[in-house]
Amino acid sequence: MRMHDPRTANPRAALAAALAAALAASVAAPPLAHADEATLRLVAAPGSELVTARCVVCHSVDYIVMNAPIQGRSGWEATVNKMIKVMQAPITPEDAATIVGYLDAHYGAPPPAKRP
Ligand code: HEC
Predict the structure, then answer these.
(1) Buried b (16+ CB within 10 A) or exposed e, 55-76
(2) pTM greater than 0.90 (yes/no)
């Protein structure tokens, strides 16, 4: 089941849609605090709206920020695949590629083997 693609809408509308979904999923969560966190925590760059829209449906972006120091590109690939396959996240392969690229660029640890 594919939801409206937020990339065609403006980012705030996409975020609102994601938050509506998140709200539906967890009625107990304080909506406004969650909204501000989701908006402020991720580095604003191409892909950040997509990541926010796809990932805060189930949990806050704290999960991303907390895992940033330990995950390189392959780590993020594994995490996003786990969210899709194990957690049933509704993310298409194209969106997953964009999300991994964004996470690696902004929240990726340098690969240990990489030396000048
Ligand atoms: C369908 C619900 C769902 C969606 C959508 C989702 N997650 Fe998760 N995520 C979870 C659950 C549940 C956990 C807790 C898993 C655990 O404790 O083992 C989790 C845990 C995590 C963790 C902690 C490390 C780990 O592997 O458990 C990270 C990082 C993470 N998610 C990133 C993401 C990212 C990035 C996205 C968007 C691409 C995303 N999640 C979308 C459900 C989801």
Answers:
(1) bbbeebbeebeeeeeebbeebb
(2) no
